[in-house]
Design goal:
Number of helices: 16
Distance between the termini: 42 Å
Number of domains: 2
Oligomer: single chain
Number of strands: 5
Strand order of the largest sheet: 2-3-4-1-5
Order of helices and strands: HHEHHEHHEHEHEHHHHHHHH
CATH architecture of the largest domain: 3-Layer(aba) Sandwich
CATH topology of the largest domain: Rossmann fold
CATH class of the largest domain: Alpha Beta
Strand content: 5-15%
Structural class: alpha/beta
CATH superfamily of the largest domain: P-loop containing nucleotide triphosphate hydrolases
Length: 318
């Protein structure tokens, strides 16, 4: 992706971009933004591009890409921009990372403009980190902007949410996303089918286009079928999924998407999904939270509970 492409949002978020740009130009930008929406639709890209716009010395609706500030951002060395993420994907953001913000926010910005703090995903903040962040949200310092990016804003502490301006970034329609996706894939690829499988999430569609991941999902589908029809017991499926061949976070996310799609299909047929399917969905949500919060999670035990609940849902007609 070129520097120019990095400085603007994906086309399906143009309206939200114009809204924030207008606030920035008018001098009424809030000190904290919460960008919320589904995974894999470009929220983090939007946040980085907007941070670049805020810090740019010569903006024209987007960051210029040429000034000293833009060059520092491209090099990953801008002194007034800090990114806070989990140390490992799927894990929690801990309090130490938030404590370091006190020094970052002290005094004036180094480059004389704004300073920007990006936190992604914000729901990964553990309880202590969220509490520590409140001080910065209440007293962010001069010309300081916090941008929190969240797939699940409901998991954020209410005290954190209430101190941010919520901006929902929508999942694009097929018509909005398809032209862009086609430019990212080889000509023979069925981009529309990928987009449908990805739940209209363009960045997920790109990941699905990867043969390795497609194979992983195919193996996960085999386990779903085997546990459902009784040809594999839940404990055996748990041993497979906990063996290291699957990324736990990815697999849990895919299963969550699978359950949601199954429930939507049942409702579309005028039927009510069985209670056990919702129980399975709740189990997935619980294990995903535990996976984020606990680096020492017993994966085989957790997967055993997941597959047992899936077996019950399948027997009940889920």
């Amino acid at each position: 992706m070129s520097q120019g492409e990095l400085s603007v949002p994906y086309p399906w978020h143009a309206a939200q971009w114009r809204e924030l740009d207008a606030l920035l130009r008018a001098g009424t930008l809030p000190h904290a933004l919460l960008l919320a929406g589904a995974p894999d639709i470009g929220k983090f890209h939007f946040a980085r591009a907007f941070a670049s716009l805020v810090l740019c010395a010569e903006p024209h609706g987007s960051a210029c890409g040429r000034c000293r500030n833009c060059q520092l951002i491209a090099a990953g060395s801008h002194p007034d921009l800090v990114l806070i993420q989990p140390e490992e994907p799927g894990k929690a953001i801990r309090i130490d990372a938030i404590r370091e913000l006190r020094e970052f926010c002290a005094g004036r910005p180094h480059q004389g403009g704004w300073r920007v703090i990006l936190i992604e995903p914000a729901e990964a903040l553990n309880a202590n980190a969220a509490n520590a962040l409140l001080k910065t949200l209440e007293e962010p310092g001069e010309r300081t902007l916090l941008i929190l990016v969240s797939h699940q804003p409901g998991r954020l502490a209410a005290t954190v949410r209430s101190r941010c301006r919520l901006l929902r970034l929508p999942t694009p329609s097929i018509e909005q996303a398809l032209p862009w996706l086609r430019t990212q894939l080889p000509g023979e690829t069925d981009a529309e089918s990928l987009l449908v499988r990805a739940g209209r999430r363009p960045l997920r569609a790109l990941v699905l286009a990867s043969g390795d991941l497609a194979g992983t999902f195919a193996r996960l589908q085999e386990l779903i079928i085997a546990v459902a029809d009784g040809s594999m017991v839940p404990a055996a499926a748990a041993a497979v999924t906990a063996s290291g061949h699957f990324d736990t976070g990815e697999a849990l996310g895919w299963l969550t998407d699978f359950v949601a799609a199954r429930a939507r299909a049942t409702i579309a047929q005028g039927e009510r999904p069985p209670r056990t399917l919702f129980d399975f969905f709740d189990r997935l949500a619980t294990v995903r939270r535990e996976h984020v919060a606990n680096a020492n999670l017993n994966a085989e035990l957790a997967w055993g509970e997941v597959w047992q609940d899936w077996r019950r849902a399948a027997v009940a007609g889920g």
